[in-house]
Every structure is written in C-alpha cells, then in structure tokens.
Design a protein that fits this description.
Layout: H1 16-25, H2 31-42, E1 47-52, E2 56-61, H3 68-74, H4 81-84, H5 102-105, E3 110-119, E4 122-129, H6 130-135, E5 144-147, E6 156-164, H7 170-180, E7 189-192, E8 195-196, E9 205-213, E10 216-224, E11 237-241, E12 244-249, E13 263-268, H8 286-335, H9 362-367, H10 373-380, E14 400-406, E15 409-416, E16 425-428, E17 431-435, H11 439-444, H12 448-467, H13 472-487
Length: 492
C-alpha cells in the first residue's frame, strides 16, 4: 500500500443553505431594504426610489448599473471586490457593502427576487425564484435574460421583491433608512412612496468632538436634549461606520438613571471591524478598544456638562420661586412692621426693599404704616457705608443667594444642598440657609405653587425666630400671621 498517495475531499454546501445563511445573518427581514439602498449608494446613485405595495417592493436607482461581468460579481457570495475598490468612481464614496449576502436575506420575506440593470448598451434581468432554486437540485445557476438597450432609458438598477409573505409598514422602512443609510452624504437622496426621507435632526445642547486613535479619527456630536424631548426609545449613541449606524451603545451612561434619556447623537469611526451581519463590532479587537477609550472620555465630558446645565436650570427655577416668595414676605412685613426683626421700614423705601430680588407692589406700599419722625429723620441722613454680607462657607456652584433689604439692614437667603440628613432650614446671624437636598424640600419643589409656599414658610419661620429667639411659641404665632398676610388677599 502506497502510504504517500494523496486524496482530496471536495468542500461542498447544500445550496438551500444560501437562503438560510441570509435569513440568519439578517435577524430582521426589513434589513434587506437598507442593504439594497446602500448598494445603490456604492454604485454612485444620486437618487433611490422605493415603492412599497401590498405584495411587492420595488427599489430603483440611477447609479452606474452593472454589465454582464458586474452581474456575475453581484451574485458572487463573499466577493472581495469592494475591499479591493473601496472608493466609488464618480463621487469617491467610501463603499459600504462587504459580504454580498444581504440579497439572499430578501428571500426570507419574498418568493422572488428580480434584478434589472443597465450599464451603457447592456441591459439584463436576473430572476431568483426561491421555489425554482430549491427544485433544481445540483444546479447553481440563475436565469439571465438579455433585454433590448432601450428597455431602460438610463443607467441604474431596479430590484423587485414579489410575493411578499408579510406586510411592511412604510414608517418602519423609513426609520431603518434614516438610521442605516448615509442620507447626509452629498449628491444622495432617497424617496419612499413619493416623499423624500430626510436625516434625523435633533435640537438641544450640541457637543461636537474629534479625537485621534492609531487606527483613524473618531468624530461626531452628542446632543443633550431638553427634558421635554427626552425619550426612552432608541437610547444610546449611534455608532456609525461609513455613515451607516451599526448599533447604539452607552459607554457607562446606563448608570445615569433618567438623565440617560436626554442623551442622543452619533460617533463616526470608519476603522471599526464589524460583524458579517453589520449589527455589531468585533469587541476584542485593538481598534474597538481604542474607540471605547475615546468614547468613555467623551461621555465623561458630556456628564459634566449635563450636570452644569441641570444645575443652571434648577437654579433658574429656584431663583424665580424665591423671588416670588420674598415679594410676598416683603408685603407681609410692610403690613406688619411690628413683626419685623429689622424695625419699621424707612420712609420712601417703596420699591427697593428686596435689593433686586423683588419689588413692592402698590398694595404693599399702601399698607405700610406711618413711620415716626425720629425714624424718618434717621432715614434722611446720609447712608452709611454698606456692611459686607456675611461670608458663606462651603457653598456649591449651584447655590442661589438673594437679599431681602430694609433700608440698610436685611437678611440674606441662601438655597443650597446640605445633604438629605441636614437641617431643613437654619440661620447664622442674618443669613438664612435652605436645604434643597432635604426630602420635604424636594417634594414641595415639584410644583411652583407649593415651592413658593414652602420657601415662604421656611423663611418666615427664621425671621420670626430672629425677632425673639427665646420665645418660640410667639415666634410661631408671628410666622402664622406673616404667612396669612403674604398669601391671603384681604380685599378678595
């Protein structure tokens, strides 16, 4: 026996598996529309028309089309042609397609796949009938019909999917085209049932970024949406390769809670290696690791900006509520100067009582009692040098401070976070501190009316205690009267 003789085993595959491979690689049958549109983009099409009917979907483009060799290459599974020619000849586009399997995924949704293409004088039609393909055992052939040159007027390709086994909602197709095709590219437009599909546009605080890696640049834009526009649908940042969204990822944002719903945007990294179904990345690659580090830095910056924006918005909200509360308190003190720890209001002090925090209404001015002559004389004297405000320690950048002034004296109000276990309100000399971290404050600040009422309650409590700190019972009675006159309209 000759032990050195060699034998060979042929590598074979049942042709029914070609359809199965396409079906399994594309978990959603709607993906085939995106694949065909991207093929048109690779072929330098300027316009793609999609018509969705009850039992048929037709996708036509005005790209370069295919000749006989091009058609053969089109049905060559796993062709490397686009890797060898990564740029399109007319517009110099970065070609998207890689594996050439998407066309077989169409047969998971339709009985027949038909391609009509024109390149100069060549016009051909190839029909891929699922039932006929499975019947013809042993043959790996598709019928090619050569058509007259005038069968189609311009270069381009039309793909027809007939005998659909399910209905496709045009809105779902539009959403997939918006996310999965390069709609922002110049000289490229997609129409669906007669109307143009436009790229998604979001409004909000935009944070552009551009960072380098050893494999290429990472660029994009993260958008912090207004709270009214936040949505739990389509969470995460779109990761795009060659302008096409592969998937959405979080990069640690999943720990942000509700704030994550305010983050949208995209990151472009053409160097990322993707899986064959274009739904994920090869994450154990050095390319993805470099990309991940960049995106974690980006989301870290986004988190800091989000916190600042949230703090500013909350600060404006607190400032408005505090201003309204001080207006009401000022009105009540003007009507009850005997309850004020600061003495009676100086004569003529009609509109400057809150030092920019608020002004007196005409009704409040009318309610001010007559000021004794000796106090009026003192008020007419030249004003002394203003004393420095009490120094406030350990305040956060989001603290809100306003001063309620009575002539040369008054009280400073500081709203800041002092911890959930901290006091609800406390005073140091003439400064009143309100704790925005306190659970009661959080609950009452949800609505503007209760927010103003709660602020007034806390401030009048401290003002009343300043009047006579040794007698808290009388202080509470004074507070009750101030709150009544602040919020109850006697004339109404």
């Amino acid at each position: 026996m000759d032990t050195n003789s060699n034998e060979f085993i042929n590598v074979t595959i049942d042709k029914s598996h070609i359809i199965t491979i396409g079906e399994r690689l594309y978990t959603e049958s709607i993906e085939f529309v995106r694949e065909i549109v991207n093929n048109a983009y690779d072929a330098d099409a300027a316009l793609v028309e999609i018509i969705v009917g009850e039992d048929i979907i037709e996708i036509s483009d005005n790209g370069s089309g295919m000749d006989r060799d091009g058609l053969k290459q089109y049905f060559n599974i796993g062709s490397q042609q686009k890797l060898h020619s990564p740029k399109s000849p007319v517009y110099g586009r970065d070609r998207i397609g890689q594996f050439g399997i998407g066309k077989f995924a169409t047969l998971s949704a339709a009985k027949r796949f038909e391609v009509i293409t024109k390149n100069r004088d060549f016009v051909g039609r190839v029909t891929f009938d699922k039932e006929e393909w499975e019947k013809a055992t042993g043959l790996w052939q598709l019928p090619l019909e050569i058509l007259p040159p005038d069968f189609r007027k311009t270069n381009g390709t039309t793909v027809i999917l007939a005998g659909l086994n399910k209905k496709f909602n045009p809105k779902d197709i539009e959403a997939r085209i918006t996310e999965g095709t390069p709609l922002k590219a110049p000289h490229f437009r997609v129409r669906l049932n007669g109307h143009s599909i436009t790229p998604r546009s979001l409004s909000g605080h935009k944070i552009p970024f551009l960072e380098g890696t050893p494999f290429g640049p990472v660029s994009g834009e993260v958008i912090i949406l207004p709270e009214t526009a936040s949505s739990v649908k389509d969470l995460g940042i779109e990761i795009k390769v060659k302008q096409v969204t592969v998937r959405r990822e979080f990069f640690g944002m999943e720990t942000w809670g509700k704030a994550m719903a305010r983050i949208a945007g995209e990151a472009n990294a053409d160097f990322l290696p993707i899986t064959s179904d274009r739904t994920g990345f090869i994450k154990d690659s050095p390319e993805y690791e470099a990309f991940r580090k960049v995106m974690e830095r980006v989301t870290g910056d986004v988190k800091n900006i989000l916190q600042k924006l949230s703090g500013k918005k909350e600060g404006r909200k607190v400032s408005r509520a505090l201003k309204e509360a001080l207006q009401k308190i000022y009105k009540a003190l003007a009507a009850n100067p005997d309850l004020s720890p600061f003495g009676a209001f100086p004569a003529g002090d009609e509109t400057k009582g809150i030092g920019g925090a608020a002004g007196m209404t005409k009704e409040a001015v009318q309610a001010v009692q007559t000021v004794p002559e000796d106090q009026a004389a003192k008020a007419a004297e030249p004003k002394k040098k203003r004393k420095k405000k009490p120094k406030v320690k350990q305040l956060t950048p989001n603290a809100v401070i306003k001063r309620m002034k009575f002539g040369d004296i008054g009280v400073s109000i500081c709203v800041d976070g002092f911890g959930e276990d901290g006091a609800e309100v406390f005073s140091e000399e003439t400064t009143i501190y309100l704790n925005r971290d306190h659970p009661l404050y959080k609950r009452e600040s949800a609505k503007i009316d209760t927010h103003v009422l709660n602020l007034a309650r806390l401030i009048t409590q401290e003002i009343s205690l300043m009047k006579d700190p040794k007698n808290p019972r009388q202080a509470f009675e004074r507070q009750s009267k101030l709150m009544r006159d602040a919020f109850i309209d006697k004339n109404g």
